[in-house]
Amino acid sequence: MLAVALLIHLSTATAYIWPSPQLDALEAARFDQTGHNAGRIAGFIQPCDTFFLGGLDSTGRSNVGDWLRTAYHDVATHNITDGTGGMDASIRFADEQKLFHTIQNVGDGIPNTIGLLFTVTGRYISMADSLALGPIIAIENCGGPEIAFRGGRVDAAEANPPGVPQPDQGLNAHIAAFARQGFTQTDMISLVACGHTFGGVQHEYFPDIVPELNDTTDTESVAHFDSTFVTFDNKLAMEYIADTTKDPLVVGFNLTTNSDRRIFSSDGNITMRSFAESSEKFKSTCARILALMFDTVPKGVELTDIITPLPVKPHNIQLMLDGDTLKLFGEVRFWNMTEDRARDVLLIWEDHLGSTHHATLSFAGLSTAVAERYTAAWYAFNQTAEIDFQALNPAAGITRMRFIVDGRVEDQGGLGFSVQDSVVFSNSSCATSQNPYTGHLDIGVRTGMPVARVYLEQQVNDDVQRVVIVETEVEPPMTTSHPYSIWSIDLRDANKFVLYTIGFELKDGTKFSTNDAHRLFDFPLCAI
Ligand code: HEM
Ligand SMILES: *[C@@H]1O[C@H](CO)[C@@H](O)[C@H](O)[C@H]1NC(C)=O
Ligand SMILES: *[C@@H]1O[C@H](CO)[C@@H](O)[C@H](O)[C@H]1NC(C)=O
Ligand SMILES: *[C@@H]1O[C@H](CO)[C@@H](O)[C@H](O)[C@H]1NC(C)=O
Ligand SMILES: *[C@@H]1O[C@H](CO)[C@@H](O)[C@H](O)[C@H]1NC(C)=O
Ligand SMILES: *[C@@H]1O[C@H](CO)[C@@H](O)[C@H](O)[C@H]1NC(C)=O
Ligand SMILES: *[C@@H]1O[C@H](CO)[C@@H](O)[C@H](O)[C@H]1NC(C)=O
Ligand SMILES: *[C@@H]1O[C@H](CO)[C@@H](O)[C@H](O)[C@H]1NC(C)=O
């Protein structure tokens, strides 16, 4: 009994401590899939045959297929000997999308994927992370297993030499290509079987393999690998073993391009037979081997631990100075919890003056993840009879929070959830003109905090689309005031949509960023 309790404690202790901006963002992208505060990825695959390409809602194609293939093409550049290539989003460069001989490019699936997935990329989630996350969410929402996701991939600055195997290459060339990528022959069979359960081969890009199909339900003439081309299942293996497969890389009329046949039979069909006989075996193998595939990164890149859902997670906590009050906004998410109107959720917080306060939180919504296998309940810091969160005392501020849910204390094992109120936007900020936008941002810096510098942060893309943060120094005021001194910056020619966050650095060199992003547009015209 004791040993069991200890194990559970240890496994929860490895979860990260909130707040951690990168892990918080990765965790949200991974687990806030549909419903309240949902991220974008799941919306691109609901239902699983969703496909959009420049407004064209074509049949026969699917985002899920494109995403998984694009991720593999990115990985396929990896050279395990020198550690170059791998999941680094280098596939976004046109040079890498060019293939060896027969054809000029890999079709529209890859640019399509890149366009969609990069909408989730941001300051804390690289393009390569989103390229792994997209297919992971697609697989688990379209019938497949849950796949361990780690973050921290680093986006390449240039193309790698293309490394994608071609259907007209021989078995030995394929074994060698997968070995270079770090996979054994058995891994290769598994990876191809796990990949080719989605999608198929398009006539347009492989006219020598697939003829025009003249099928009004398959307008792009895609010869699917199996009969359930948007479901992640073992049908490909079942149909292959039963000899009823229509996989164009198995039963194509030209033996030269039947690469799936050569690969699948290369171990005497042992692997494919095991997949055909057991859906569980297929799914567990795919979960393991695809996680390895997504985690194939260039040498020197350090991935995070596997991202697991945080049981209790404050969300979008924001503070704003407003005259003699400090406004607090926020929500909290409780993982694996459904709606229950009778549940009591209490927020307890401590302040700089040593007092403790409490307030009841109100139910705000539900979210789901992993094909609705998990549900999370969200509660908001709304005004209640006990407390007006818009009118906290700035001198007291807020230092840390904990929650009480139906009598159970949630405080990250005693640490609490720390809240930084050292540097906050002030809503004395204003726009001096609106066309073009010029204005004045005021930032409150808590007196007595060891703040060395304050700067505005603006998220921009560099010339190879990577997100970078541009810092603009904010000057300290001549005089200190209590409890907050106001540091100010004048902005000219600001685009009204530009979002600013505030960054600050403490005297010991640690840097922080606020959660709340504001545009000049959000503030009123300055009083004259
Ligand atoms: C020897 C290895 C491989 C060869 C020769 C190969 C070949 C191909 C070809 C010719 C296509 C058709 C592409 C098109 O029509 O645009 C395709 C599609 C696809 N491949 Fe592979 N592939 C291999 C390995 C893999 C691996 C390891 C994965 C992932 C784990 C994968 C995932 C996919 C997916 C999901 C599609 C469907 C794309 C869609 O429908 O949009 N392939 N593959
Ligand atoms: C992989 O890297 C090694 C070491 O740099 C090199 O000798 C080898 O040619 C590379 N393989 C390929 C296929 O580029
Ligand atoms: C589809 O139509 C084209 C043009 O008429 C023809 O060449 C092709 O063979 C047809 N494909 C099939 C699968 O019947
Ligand atoms: C079969 O495919 C190979 C490689 O693409 C090509 O060179 C050959 O001409 C094809 N054979 C036939 C009969 O179409
Ligand atoms: C593998 O299975 C396929 C499909 O049933 C069959 O055509 C082929 O002969 C088998 N190959 C071996 C080596 O058993
Ligand atoms: C989710 O909650 C249910 C009921 O409260 C519990 O039985 C189950 O073990 C929980 N699952 C996880 C993964 O924590
Ligand atoms: C409660 O707070 C949430 C999030 O801060 C907000 O979206 C919602 O409108 C608020 N609801 C009420 C009733 O005030
Ligand atoms: C600050 O914000 C509140 C509510 O958002 C608003 O009522 C108030 O007028 C604002 N103060 C200024 C100076 O704009």
UniProtKB/TrEMBL annotation:
Give one GO molecular function term. metal ion binding
Q: Name one Pfam family in it.
A: peroxidase
Q: What class of enzyme is it?
A: oxidoreductase
Q: What EC number(s) are associated with this protein in UniProt?
A: 1.11.1.-
Origin superkingdom: Eukaryota
Instruction: Tell me yes or no: is Signal among this UniProt entry's keywords.
Output: yes
Q: Please report the stretch or stretches of sequence annotated as the Plant heme peroxidase family profile domain.
A: 44-333
Signal sequence range:
1-15
UniProt keyword ATP-binding, yes or no: no
Q: Which InterPro entries match?
A: Ccp1-like, Haem_peroxidase, Haem_peroxidase_sf
What are the alphabetically sorted keywords of the record?
Heme, Iron, Metal-binding, Oxidoreductase, Peroxidase, Signal
BP GO terms, sorted: cellular response to oxidative stress; hydrogen peroxide catabolic process; response to reactive oxygen species
Q: Which family does it belong to?
A: Belongs to the peroxidase family.
Name assigned to this protein: Peroxidase
